[in-house]
Design goal:
Shape: elongated
Number of domains: 1
Helix content: 40-55%
Radius of gyration: 17 Å
Length: 81
């Protein structure tokens, strides 16, 4: 788990069994208790969608590398949906 010193930002990764493999789950939370309405709106409508796109690309890249490594080791690789 990664977090800011004030714990207003937390990013956690976990691995969970899934069918014939493992699922990597990423969760994050950003608290802005003293932020203005404008800053909160900016976070909600600009930063969150951008973060979602980047995080999805990162997770897909991790998945591709893990599957490539598994194929190289001769282990059976199942495609995730």
């Amino acid at each position: 788990m990664l977090r800011s010193d004030d714990s207003n930002w937390v990013w956690a990764f976990s691995m969970a069994p899934a069918d014939a493999g493992t699922r990597l789950i990423s969760r994050n939370r950003i608290a802005t208790p003293s932020a203005s309405c404008l800053v909160r709106a900016l976070n909600t409508y600009v930063m969150e969608p951008g973060s979602l796109i980047m995080e999805r690309k990162m997770l897909i890249g991790i998945k591709q590398r893990a599957e490539r490594l598994a194929r190289g080791s001769g282990r059976r690789v199942e495609a995730l949906r």
